[in-house]
Amino acid sequence: MELLVISDAHGNRAAICEALRRQVRPPDALLFLGDGLRDLPDLPDGRTALYAVAGNCDGYLPFFTEGEERELCLLSLGEHRLLLTHGHRFGVKSGCGALLAYAAQEGADIVLYGHTHLPHAEVIPAGTALGGLVTERPIYLFNPGSIGQDVDGKGYSFGTVTLLGKSVLLSHGRIPR
User: Fold this and answer.
1) Residue 119: which domain range?
2) What gap in Å lies between CA 166 and CA 149, rounded to an integer?
3) Residues 10/148, Cβ–Cβ less than 8 Å
4) In terms of DSSP H, where are the helices of the chain?
5) CA angle 18, 21, 22 (to 5 degrees)
6) Dihedral sign, CA of 133, 161, 44, 9?
7) What is the mean pLDDT of residues 70-94?
């Protein structure tokens, strides 16, 4: 299963379209982590599922139904449980401790977040104590960076997550300015 992960578009729809175009084949899902829900293009191929959470800059949008959780999404895909969040609720600009504790509590083994605009990939080993729990399996922590703003002079960034059984591959891509 191939997942395209993007966050923090902030008005840059063209970069989202370019990230989609760069995929070897249409991804099985597009995971959007907030700040730019209005920038999401239609997915005409009918094959790519869309999962999205709202960021701190998204405000009210009719994208969500009344009463629906806007800032968190838990998904079960294959043998994995994914947690999608923008990250502002967990203070990720100051560290990911609260986010990881919540993920452990919810049984997530892949945690996807945005908000910092910086690409990040890390594996938290099985047996790590998080929020009073000891993890039974590794937790993959992943931030695709910003598809809308080039914060480090290396271009707009996005991520891909490949799931094959219990295996997880995380990677970042760049689109030049």
Assistant:
1) 2-175
2) 33
3) yes
4) 13-21, 97-106
5) 90
6) positive
7) 95
The mean per-residue pLDDT over the stretch 61-82 comes to 79
**pLDDT tier, 62 (very low <50, low <70, confident <90, very high otherwise):** low
- Reported as type and span, the H/E element at residue 32 is strand 29-32
Compute the distance between CA of residue 30 and CA of residue 82 in angstroms, rounded to an integer. 13
Q: Are 136 and 107 in contact (CB under 8 A)?
A: no
What amino acid is encoded at 13 in this protein?
Answer: R
Put simply, whether the predicted model's pTM sits higher than 0.85 gets the answer: yes
CA angle 128, 80, 89 (to 5 degrees): 65
Report the domain count for the chain: 1
In contact, 31 and 49? CB cutoff 8 Å = no
Could you tell me the CATH number of the domain that includes residue 21?
3.60.21.10
